[in-house]
Design a protein that fits this description.
241 residues; 28% helix; 32% strand; 4 helices
Length: 241
């Protein structure tokens, strides 16, 4: 039985007067003129030509390639999925492991800031006994320990109002108990402070303070003014004794 011829069709619209040229061109390309419909300004031309036979061997080869690609992709996907599955199953196993019996070390507690005293710092002890308030030892100590806290037994050597204030003072402090008669140690100075800022503590806290009063001064080390020979401190606490 002879296979039935299959056609493909094409419709072309042309301006009237050019029909012949279009038909000639289409026929050169293998198209068969079928019919023509005339319009007022345009014509509709219908053509057909036999469909080219399908190259089945090539199609079969292409299909085989697609099948092989599908198998390769499927295998790769399966392997990838297997790896992911193993990863998912491995993670819970790791999470389910028993915690180590060894306790996790905690961060070390910050060491308490050591207050410098004549008893634990020989440099400070020597400074408190020095006869020269302008000695370089004052500047060296201030540079080395600036911001640190010191504590010493001393007394108020002098007390004057700060500027025009009536309740703020500049206090000159000395080591020991001799008040204005102090002759050794640095000329420690609290500048522009009131009584509240001294943070008076201990037994029998006085309502007022004055020259000659004895305290245990706890203070933060400031700078040393080499021109005035004044060693600046900031009060931390002032303990009665």
């Amino acid at each position: 039985m002879t296979d039935e011829i299959k056609y493909e069709y094409k419709t072309v619209q042309t301006v009237r007067g050019t029909d012949g040229l279009v038909i000639s061109k289409m026929q050169k390309d293998g198209w068969e003129f079928v019919e023509q419909s005339q319009g007022t300004l345009r014509s509709t031309l219908n053509f057909r030509r036999p469909k080219k036979p399908v190259p089945w061997p090539l199609i079969g080869a292409g299909a085989a390639v697609l099948v092989i690609l599908a198998i390769v992709i499927g295998t790769a996907t399966a392997l990838s999925g297997g790896d992911e599955k193993r990863d998912r199953t491995a993670k819970p196993a790791a999470a389910s492991e028993k915690p180590s019996a060894t306790p996790t070390p905690t961060a070390a507690e910050p060491a308490a800031v050591e207050v410098i005293t004549p008893e634990n710092n020989s440099e400070f002890a020597a400074l408190l006994k020095a006869a020269d308030t302008c000695d370089d030892a004052n500047a060296n100590f201030a540079t080395r320990y600036e911001g640190r806290t010191i504590a010493f037994n001393g007394s108020i050597v002098d007390m004057t109002p700060h500027g025009d204030y009536e309740t703020r003072y500049d206090l000159l402090l000395g080591a020991g108990d001799k008040g204005p008669k102090t002759t050794v140690g640095p000329a420690f100075k609290y500048e522009d402070v009131n009584v509240v800022e001294l943070k008076l503590t201990g037994k029998d806290v006085p309502a007022t303070i004055g020259v000659g009063d004895e305290f245990r001064f706890v203070a933060e080390v400031g700078d040393f003014n080499a021109v005035q020979c004044l060693f600046h401190l900031s009060p931390v606490s002032t303990d009665t004794r």
